[in-house]
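My current task is to audit a protein record that another person submitted. My question to you is simply how this chain folds and whether the tokens agree. This is what I was given:
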Amino acid sequence: LPIIFAYNTGIHATTQYSPYQLQFGREPRLPTDEPSTSFRFNKPIDYYDQLKKRSLIIQRQAHGHIIYRQRQYKIHYDKQRPDPRYKVNDLVLIKIHGLKTKLEAKYSIIPKLITKEQHPTY
């Protein structure tokens, strides 16, 4: 249980928020924290309205952080991936789908000749 609590209250690198903040729209109250006296509301609905606004802001910011991180991850992944360009008359090996055992060859033994240009998805 302490591990789950630590995970839920820890700030995640991607969203910049803790799962607790994303779920409940506020910072978690820890057992060592003193009771908060700074929030005074005239009506109970005021607390709900403020919580709803804060939750919406947090979720929008977290969504923006996620999109930003996805772009960073894509850039990093694309740096590591080679971008081969094949032309007509190049020899290539064809991947064999539906392998039955892990010891079978994954690609054809005999190279094939590219006879027409296709979409560059390899």
